[in-house]
């Protein structure tokens, strides 16, 4: 018989280690017993408002203790949470609520005014917590194949897609990570990434599955992070590149304490200068590769390889597999670039209401990521770029990320984006969009020269455009498809 059920995660955890701390948030702490009791009460309040098992319910909340309680309350009664990004515009949020066909929206009190004209019921946090709690019908057993959450992709390559995460996806993501990083009783994970992203939500799931305390911040602040790492005994922290840059800057001449054992870096490519700066400050960085669809990282590089395998995202976690395939579907050989395909119990079973995308992206259990990369002889993954951003110039493949990484290493460059523009001779050629640091005076010629020293000639951008700001989405990811819109308003020093 195949085991597909498990006890409800939070209820089980509160039974196993009730007195252990679950969350530190500002001056407040909650033990697992208290987290369960509060979530149980909120589950009864949700039920009192007519929220039912198996419904999709939108959630638009900030990083806060109450958010954790509400997210677990939904899990306790088997409601599928459509977790929305509170940095999006109203238009984008409404698009996602309509796309998901959510039956209601639970939101922050101060967002009510903005969202009150939705076609579905809008429930503020205050209203939810004021309802008399019924005794909730608990989902005592979860089915690992059932959907637990829906999260939208960042929308970097087009419209966002609602990724279905089953309980099993979250379970295996937490297990895969523990098998990789190990887990001890003294571990504490700092969550200053948003709970509405898989990066943040996956920390909640790890907390309950491992019995591990988390420290929750409303948002990221480098000094506060360093302070809590020192004084709250944080051992692990999830970061994206910009956060790590700021930590390294804020450290000045100091170092992080020895108990801090892992900065788990995800979300996008890690520029080499950043990795080198971390090495110099002895910040233990675990590079990783993953996407919303893989319920957090699927590939990780341990720090002992950070120099010998500089730039690699590592090897797939124990329960997961990756392959590189060529255009004709054949497997690539070592060092040969192709599309990264992934498989594993942490990989989504598909997208909400999008059978067309499921058909396009899944083949015999393998998800086609749309990312290009290669494996070296030892099986370490190197991510090159997204397939949709690839520039083909005179038959040569050019990866914008590689050029951007070189440009970002220039001390006068604050931000850089590269895209292909049409060219009579070569089909396409790379063009660079540059945001200079304050008071920088570098010229196009000097930047070209700098690129020539670091890149093959055909990869050096043919033109440079200087601009105030690059187009980025709510996750701060560069929207390369929108770079050419800047041509009008940028200036070039020719
Ligand atoms: P959309 O799917 O809507 O276009 P998105 O892919 O940016 O948005 P996410 O799921 O947040 O949405 O991001 C996952 C993507 O981030 C990966 O598919 C990959 O392109 C990029 N990424 C993640 N880790 C790395 C890495 N280590 N190196 C390079 N790229 C990475
Ligand atoms: Mg994607």
From TrEMBL:
Ligase keyword on record: yes
Enzyme class: ligase
Domain of life: Bacteria
Chain ranges of the AMP-dependent synthetase/ligase domain: 12-352
Pathway membership: Quinol/quinone metabolism; menaquinone biosynthesis; Quinol/quinone metabolism; 1,4-dihydroxy-2-naphthoate biosynthesis; 1,4-dihydroxy-2-naphthoate from chorismate: step 5/7
Keywords: ATP-binding, Ligase, Menaquinone biosynthesis, Nucleotide-binding
Record-annotated AMP-binding enzyme C-terminal domain positions: 402-477
One term of GO molecular function: o-succinylbenzoate-CoA ligase activity
Reaction catalysed by this enzyme: 2-succinylbenzoate + ATP + CoA = 2-succinylbenzoyl-CoA + AMP + diphosphate
Enzyme Commission number(s): 6.2.1.26
Gene3D superfamilies to which the protein is assigned, alphabetical: 3.30.300.30, N-terminal domain of ligase-like (3.40.50.12780)
Family that this chain belongs to: Belongs to the ATP-dependent AMP-binding enzyme family. MenE subfamily.
Purpose of the protein: Converts 2-succinylbenzoate (OSB) to 2-succinylbenzoyl-CoA (OSB-CoA).
HAMAP family, sorted: MenE
PANTHER family xref list: ACYL-COA SYNTHETASE, MEDIUM-CHAIN ACYL-COA LIGASE ACSF2, MITOCHONDRIAL
Listed name of the protein: 2-succinylbenzoate--CoA ligase
Taxonomic path: Bacteria, Bacillati, Bacillota, Bacilli, Bacillales
């Amino acid at each position: 018989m195949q085991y597909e059920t498990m006890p409800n995660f939070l209820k089980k955890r509160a039974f196993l280690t009730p007195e252990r701390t679950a969350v530190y948030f500002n001056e407040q702490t909650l033990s697992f017993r208290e987290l369960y009791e509060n979530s149980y009460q909120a589950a009864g309040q949700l039920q009192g408002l007519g929220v039912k098992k198996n419904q999709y319910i939108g959630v638009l909340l900030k990083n806060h203790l109450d958010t954790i309680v509400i997210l677990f309350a939904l899990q306790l009664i088997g409601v599928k949470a459509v977790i929305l990004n509170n940095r999006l515009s109203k238009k984008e949020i409404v698009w996602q609520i309509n796309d998901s066909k959510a039956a209601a929206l639970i939101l922050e009190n101060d967002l009510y005014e903005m969202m009150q004209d939705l076609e579905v019921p809008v429930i503020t946090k205050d209203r939810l917590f004021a309802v008399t709690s019924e005794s909730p019908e608990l989902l005592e057993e979860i089915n690992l194949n059932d959907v637990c959450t829906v999260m939208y992709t960042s929308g970097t390559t087009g419209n966002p897609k609602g990724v279905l995460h089953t309980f099993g996806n979250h379970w295996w993501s937490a297990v895969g990570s523990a098998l990789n990083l190990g887990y001890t009783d003294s571990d504490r994970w700092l969550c200053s990434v948003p709970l509405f992203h898989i990066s943040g939500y996956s920390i909640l799931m790890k907390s309950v599955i491992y019995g591990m305390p988390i420290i929750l911040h409303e948002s990221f602040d480098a000094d506060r992070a360093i302070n809590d790492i020192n004084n709250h005994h944080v051992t692990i922290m999830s970061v994206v590149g910009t956060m790590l840059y700021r930590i390294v800057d804020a450290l000045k001449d100091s170092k992080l304490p020895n108990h801090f054992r892992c900065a788990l870096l995800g979300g996008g490519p890690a520029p080499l200068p950043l990795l080198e700066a971390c090495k110099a400050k002895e910040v233990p960085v675990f590079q990783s590769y993953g996407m919303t669809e893989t319920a957090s990282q699927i590939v990780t590089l341990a720090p002992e390889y950070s120099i010998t395998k500089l730039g690699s995202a590592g090897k797939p976690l124990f329960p997961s597999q990756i392959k590189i395939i060529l255009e004709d579907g054949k497997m690539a050989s070592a060092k040969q670039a192709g599309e990264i395909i992934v498989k594993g119990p942490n990989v989504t079973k598909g997208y909400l209401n999008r059978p067309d995308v499921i058909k396009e992206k899944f083949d015999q259990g393998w998800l086609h990521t749309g990312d290009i990369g290669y494996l070296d002889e030892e099986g370490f993954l190197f991510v090159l770029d997204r397939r949709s951003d690839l520039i083909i110039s005179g038959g040569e493949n050019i990866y914008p990320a590689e050029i951007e990484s070189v440009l970002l290493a220039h001390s006068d460059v604050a931000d850089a984006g590269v895209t292909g523009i049409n060219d009579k001779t070569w089909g396409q050629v790379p063009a660079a969009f540059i945001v200079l640091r304050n008071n920088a005076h570098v010229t196009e010629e000097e930047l070209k020269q700098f690129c020539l020293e670091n890149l093959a000639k055909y990869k050096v951008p043919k033109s440079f455009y200087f601009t105030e700001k690059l187009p980025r989405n709510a996750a701060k990811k560069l929207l390369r498809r929108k770079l050419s819109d800047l041509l009008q308003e940028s200036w070039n020093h020719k």
